[in-house]
Amino acid sequence: MMLDAHLCIQVGALDLDVELQAGDDEVVAVLGPNGAGKTTILRILAGLLRVDAGYVRLDEVVLDDAGTGTYVVPERRPIGVVFQEYLLFPYLSARDNVAFGLRTRGVPRREARQQADLWLDRVGLAAFASAKPRSLSGGQAQRVALARALATSPRLLLLDEPLAALDAGTRAEIRRDLRHHLAEFAGIRVMVTHDPIDAATLADRLIVIEDGRVSQVGTVSEVSAHPRSGYVAELVGLNLYRGTATRGAISLPNATILETGDTQLNGDVFAAVNPRAVALYRDEPHGSPRNRWRGTVTDLDVLADRVRVRLDGAAPVVAEITAAAAHDLDVQPGAELWSVVKATDVHVYPA
């Protein structure tokens, strides 16, 4: 039993054309930058938007099909949604917010409130059943919204940036709770997010969306090990180049040659370099390294005792060095430095 969808829609400047499948045995995260189409996907699945072309099928039941004109309204879909803003009714208690979905499905008021209390207990909020949303913290409101979505026993649970509204101190705790609840949920789980940490810790499989198209699909480890776009490479913290390989030498589009230790792959390839494998020098280094370029520092970020340095040059690169090394090199925007990468530190795979 699964979700099977082909979603085609034009919304403003967004031209979305995405195929998506998800089963009971996985949490699928739709990951992408702002404006890529993630929330549009969720709104189509929930029934808040209709496809211009394509379909949505859940357990072989057609919920939306542009070809036949089939369309099931949101309230008749076996779907629960946790919105980014939670959308709790401000005038209802936590208990009645959770009971709301049950009431719309015909469950008597008393029974709905009893079930709501059970769900509030499951998410650790039994003591807040009578509280109004304005008196709840962000983490508590997120739990109420999750309980409301789960109370109706949906076949498909949709989560729209479920942790985005939380402060950094609360996010880690709620992320752990959410992982536990997602593991217990027996239905299909689809989450949309732009946060790689949420995706890595909550999802079994990633679907990366860029500019309304799928750019990569795979497990977290697969996507991290073999990024196929600059966006994904930046998410996982790697430098990514694409070029043509010939016996260990990769010709990049700007005519720069990247030497590798892999002489077996030929043709169109990706080459990934860990920023920690990039060494920086003030003067041109001499010796064995075959990959060395002069570049200009355009940006730097301090991460505890490490500094990530972005350089523009023949081969734009991000290096990660110690704070002490950054001080010794006097790294600052505009500085001219040499980047060095050993051939054996270049990871090559087919494009």
Put the structure in a nutshell.
The chain has 9 helices and 21 strands.
CATH third-level topology of the largest domain: Rossmann fold
How would you characterize the largest beta sheet?
A: 6 strands, mixed
What's the number of helices? 9
Structural class: alpha+beta
Unreliable sequence segments: none
Number of individual domains? 2
Shape field: elongated
What oligomeric state do the depicted chains represent? single chain
Question: Percent range for helical residues?
Answer: 25-40%
- CATH architectural arrangement of the largest domain: 3-Layer(aba) Sandwich
- H-E string: EEEHEEEEHHHEHEHEEHHEEEEEEEEHEE
What's the CATH H-level homologous superfamily of the largest domain? Answer: P-loop containing nucleotide triphosphate hydrolases
Indicate the CATH class of the largest domain.
Alpha Beta
- Give the rounded overall mean pLDDT: 90
Q: What's the number of extended β-strand segments? A: 21
* Strand content range: 35-45%
